[in-house]
Design brief:
TIM Barrel, four-stranded antiparallel beta sheet, Enolase-like, domain 1, alpha/beta, about 500 residues
């Protein structure tokens, strides 16, 4: 029986009939239409083949955040073969954890994971059917609306109690986007970050970010060379043991069980404090206890410089709760308050429907960072209007999106940080590559080493100092390989 060849779809087929947002209409998208992408240049690529697979891991201990407890992870791995305008071919690899509890919280974890795995198959088909040519950002400009349209249709066919959120779609699509960026860099023997200039990109940033960015390219905002080391924010989950008395069961797996043990093992200096919100006395107790334990450990090590960040995962009922809590912490431990670098997503991610919770007063005290609420330029601009002064960049929202938001945030003078989604293996390499390059980034969260270290075991020896932390920092200077630097054992190469 002869092989069946899938028809490849142009941009017109992929997004025909799609209703664009007012912001998208306001910013020039593809002025010359599909034909602009059809004239191949040597620095263009076209997708030739795309495959995906899943792997699953169980956590060594549950991770609690935002009132939800997670004890396992499903990782989406994508391989993509591309062909350049002058005929070269290369394989790229992308990987991302399907953080359904975070990305799709309005449904059960089972339903959310099922929807994301089904969406991965749909996204594979959409990506395979794309026949446009250009830089990875050109392809993302075509693929993102097609992914969103496909997600909306999938949500209807699965009779989900809530539509698949844009954030959820971005998490699934991020592995495909990473594979395309990775393949592009490898096709030219360059780090992906060396392909963000006029020499490789068809369009300047005004195409995606508006006229203020005319004549500018990503290389203006994101350097090619990574920092040698990047501070690691150790995540203290909402149910994690701070002191021995908090332990219900000690895990005898050779890894720390309490915060003090983690500090001693990894030489930690940065701490991400997960708070559930809704119970001010409990949140106050947790912050001040962590501050006391950290202070004792730092004193024993003769360390004088350490920092915290507070992450509520939308748990604060309103901004008044946040202001009251910060005031109490400041009064109880002035030095501890001074060490708080920023506050992350204190109230609802649905910024447009939560306009009353503006952050202007809170931002006078500390940078307030939008995370779950940041999915595009429109939400970044809305967050700024509502008083948010910082953005959390995440590999799980896509390499293309992270680079664009990094440029926009810098243009608008916003605070920058890079967060994680319990990313193990290649997904952490991807995240670390972003963290090591974004100017002014305060550090990187890297909690897979705490909750699911087995998922990174195959990578550890190949990237020494990336998965095993010493002196509180990750050795990111090594991430200079072609593409996004991650080449898994057994991955196909051109």
């Amino acid at each position: 029986m002869p092989a069946v060849t899938r028809p490849r779809l142009s941009r017109r087929h992929l997004i025909g009939g799609l209703c664009l947002s007012p912001l998208a209409l306001a910013v020039p998208r593809l002025a010359a239409g599909a034909a602009a992408l059809r004239v191949a240049r040597p620095t263009d690529i076209r997708i030739v083949e795309i495959t995906h697979a899943f792997e699953g891991h169980t956590y060594r201990a549950p991770y609690m955040f935002g009132g939800r407890s997670v004890d396992r992870v499903t990782i989406l791995n994508v391989q993509c073969r591309v062909r350049t305008g002058d005929g070269r071919e290369s394989w790229g690899f992308g990987s991302m954890t399907l953080g359904n509890a975070w990305a799709f919280p309005k449904v059960s974890q089972e339903a959310g994971l099922g929807a994301m795995m089904a969406l991965a198959e749909v996204c594979r088909g959409v990506t395979a059917d794309c026949d446009d040519e250009g830089h990875p950002l050109d392809l993302w400009r075509v693929l993102e609306p097609a992914y969103l349209q496909a997600a909306a249709a999938l949500g209807r066919t699965r009779s989900l109690p809530a539509p698949i959120p844009k954030l959820c779609t971005l998490v699934v699509a991020s592995a495909f986007d990473a594979a395309i960026h990775d393949a592009y860099g490898k096709a030219f023997g360059l780090s992906s970050y060396a392909t963000y200039s006029r020499a490789h990109m068809r369009h300047d940033l005004s195409r995606d970010l508006g006229p203020a960015f005319a004549g500018e390219y990503l290389d203006r905002y994101v350097p090619v060379q990574p920092r040698a080391t990047t501070p690691v924010f150790h995540s203290v989950g909402a149910s994690d043991a701070i002191e021995p008395a908090d332990l219900k069961t000690r895990l005898d797996d050779g890894l720390p069980n309490t915060l003090a043990e983690w500090i001693a093992r990894d030489g930690l200096t940065h701490f991400k404090i997960k708070l559930n919100g809704g119970n001010a006395a409990q949140d106050f107790d947790r912050i001040t206890r962590i501050d006391r334990v950290a202070r004792e450990a730092m004193g024993a090590r003769r360390v004088t410089d350490w920092n915290y960040l507070l992450d509520f995962n939308e748990g604060c009922p309103d901004v008044g709760y946040l202001l009251d809590l910060l005031g109490k912490v400041r009064q109880a431990t002035p030095d501890g308050f001074r060490r708080i670098k920023y506050v992350e997503q204190p109230t609802s991610r649905d910024l447009a429907t939560d306009r009353a919770n503006v952050m202007h007063e809170a931002s006078k005290l500390l940078p307030v960072v939008v995370d779950e609420g940041l999915v595009d330029l429109e939400t970044l601009l809305l967050a700024r209007e509502m008083g948010y002064t910082g953005v959390a960049l995440k590999a799980c929202k896509g390499q293309s999106g992270a680079m664009l938001m990094a440029a926009a945030a810098q243009k608008y003078g916003m605070f920058l940080c890079v967060q994680d989604l319990t990313c193990p293996g290649a997904s952490l390499i991807h995240s670390a590559g972003i963290a090591a390059r974004v100017p002014g980034n305060a550090g990187i969260e890297a909690n897979a080493r705490q909750f699911v270290p087995a998922a990174s075991a195959a990578w550890d020896a190949r990237f020494p100092g990336l998965f095993t932390i010493r002196e509180g920092a990750m050795r990111t200077g090594q991430l200079t390989g072609p593409g996004l630097s991650a080449v898994p054992a057994g991955a196909r190469q051109a």
